[in-house]
Each structure stands twice: as structure tokens, then as C-alpha cells.
Records
---
Amino acid sequence: SQQGEEDPQALSIQEGENATMNCSYKTSINNLQWYRQNSGRGLVHLILIRSNEREKHSGRLRVTLDTSKKSSSLLITASRAADTASYFCATDAWTTDSWGKLQFGAGTQVVVTP
Amino acid sequence: GAGVSQSPSNKVTEKGKDVELRCDPISGHTALYWYRQSLGQGLEFLIYFQGNSAPDKSGLPSDRFSAERTGGSVSTLTIQRTQQEDSAVYLCASSADSGFATGELFFGEGSRLTVL
């Protein structure tokens, strides 16, 4: 079963708007990562937030982490057509059942229209 | 090369044949991962290597799937007696050893397997 689940499954916005997607997970984590995947391509790392961090920024990206609620959010501000992609969260649990295993959610498909 | 390299990029095979998928990680990366992604789906964890050993093989779907890594570098994922449900994109990723937590993964472009 997947550790992380993204919400919504799909998101359609216009250029200039902000896009927010959420990720919920089940077990305690060491860190949480967000990745982006353009259609038919490999995944590209966007940002990593550690379990003792609450917020992190990178360019137009803002990630929050609430370990008490086991959830994270990714905000893309001032979206561009080039931001059209699928976005995945991934968690690193390092439990006896998942040692060294980075588990991915099902992803949020974002479409940004000009 | 500078990134993770996977080959072949596309493979079409007949049901029942064996296939081998290869992954060349970034030089110096000790951790190597295999994932499977079906059309429009998320990533399914298959196996993880730390050096040449595989601490976690729990994601391999059946005993038809096996993987090895030699010299702490190149890895091969082998699927024996392929079935149509094996059709997917097989993604490889590598990561520098960051201690007790998984760091950033660098992905290859994947090997698209189609079983007829």
C-alpha cells in the first residue's frame, strides 16, 4: 500500500493563479520530498523537508509539513504553463518494515492553461 | 555520464519471454532504487540497494522478478516469463548515502516495457 496520498488527484488552473496540493501519510517519517514528472519523463526532485521543519521555500515553491496531522502541502505561486506536470510526494519512513524505502503517492496532475 | 542512464528505453516482447533492464546510476551514489509505474499511476516500489546488498526486496511482485547490483554500480532488473500485466515503465533512481535518512533521488528516464 502507498504511504502517501495526494489530494486532489487533478487540478486545472490558469496562468498566474496559485496551485495547492496536499499529501497525507500514515507512519512517522524522517523526511518528506516532492517530485515533479512531465509526461513520459523521469521524476525530478523539487524540495525536501525534514521532520523537524515546518516550512520550506524554493523559488515559487512553498512546502509545509504538519507531523501531528501527518500531512504536507505544496504551493506553487504564480503558475506558468510550464508547470503543467504530475506532482508526487514521497516519504522516508525508515521503520523495520520500510528501511531505506522512499514511498510515493499516486500524484496530483496539474494543468496550467495560458 | 552525468545522470542516471537506463536501457533499453523501449522494449516490446512476447508473453513468456525473459527481459533484462539495465540501470547505470550516478557515479559514487551508493543507493539504487527500482520502481514501476503503470499508465497514469503512481510509483510502485520494487527493490532498494545499498551498495551491492538489497535490504528491502519486499516490493518485487513475484518470484519472476529479480534484481542484482554488481560493483556497487550497475544494476539489472530481470523479469522472467513476462506476462501482459508486467507492461509498465520501470524507473531507476540513485541517491548519495545521506546516513540514516533517504536523500534526494535522481531518476533515469525509464524503460518502457510492453508485453504482447
---
Amino acid sequence: EAQVTQNPRYLITVTGKKLTVTCSQNMNHEYMSWYRQDPGLGLRQIYYSMNVEVTDKGDVPEGYKVSRKEKRNFPLILESPSPNQTSLYFCASTDRTFEAFFGQGTRLTVV
Amino acid sequence: GDSVTQMEGPVTLSEEAFLTINCTYTATGYPSLFWYVQYPGEGLQLLLKATKADDKGSNKGFEATYRKETTSFHLEKGSVQVSDSAVYFCALSMSGGSNYKLTFGKGTLLTVNP
């Protein structure tokens, strides 16, 4: 079954404590991306990756890092989380027809 | 830059009612257009798409037609069911370039009552 798997689904952490949200896809897509979803703002792109070792900033990259060492994995790293990064995060993997497949989301709360 | 505007709702309908969710876009080129649906507690799923003007996307009784002259991609369904209750997102993606970014509208919450 084609899928994008994110972990964890829920996370509560404290300000400044580094965390990583993992994302893995089994569709051999080259393109992957991260979005955050906030009430009244819809989804906004954080980072994207066109292929292994190729990443670039989206619209709201501040406070985030990513890496793409393997095609299937695209983790999102928050080196020093702050409360304004409390949000619902989605990883997506996109095929060549521009259809995006989304993970189930990670609800992050930073206190 | 590119943008998508959709009616924000919430929209509340009775079962078997007709649904329209309006969506208009602004883009510098010729985007592909999408409707995604998000059921409670889940990620987004592609509902339908259209890649060029006058294309009609359809799935599960939902339809939307790519109207270049009005820059619109309104979602319609003739008879909604309780199971259609979800948040619906209109989105665009520009072909070409290196970023397959989806630009989303803010979403429309649909509630269908029995």
C-alpha cells in the first residue's frame, strides 16, 4: 500500500529541547515536502526536497531544518523549538503528475 | 505570488442537499488545480484534480471544472452524505520549476447532518 508515515503523531515538548519528526514514503518519489497547518492560515510549506541531498526553503523555513540522506526519508528537525512552532505538521510525497500523498500529521505542542 | 481563495465556511447542509464550495486562484502561469479533503484526525487526501483549462475533475460524486476565464475551480456535489463531513482544501501547483509546492486555500469545513 502506498503510504507516507510520520512519527510521532502527537508530541508535547518544552522550549529549546531539540526534536525530530520522521517521515518515510514507500512510493520511490523524488520530491518530498513539509507543511504546517494553522487555524485560519491553511497549510504553508516549510521545506522541500527534489531528491537525495537536494533541499530548499519553502515559505516558512525559520526555526526548522531538514535532511535527505535517503530517498524514502525526509526528517524535520527543530533544533530549539519555541511556542510559535506549536502546530500540526504534515509530510508529503509528490509524484510526477503533481499529486501529493500526505502523512497523517504530527500535532506538536511546545510549552 | 500565487494564491488561492476559497469560501471559508463553515458550511452546514442536510443530507442529500447540493454542495458548492467556491474557489478562485491567482497565478502567473497555468497551474494544475486540486481539491483535497481532510477527514477528522487524518491527513489530506486528493479528491480530484485538473491540469488544464476546461478539464473537469471528478471523484466520489464530486466535480470541479477548471475555468481559466474566471480563474475558478468550484467544487460541487449533487447530493451530500453524512460521510462527506470534512475540511475541503482548494490548491494549485505550478508545473515547471523545481518546487512542486502546493498553494492552499484556508479550507472549508463541511458538516452534513442526517
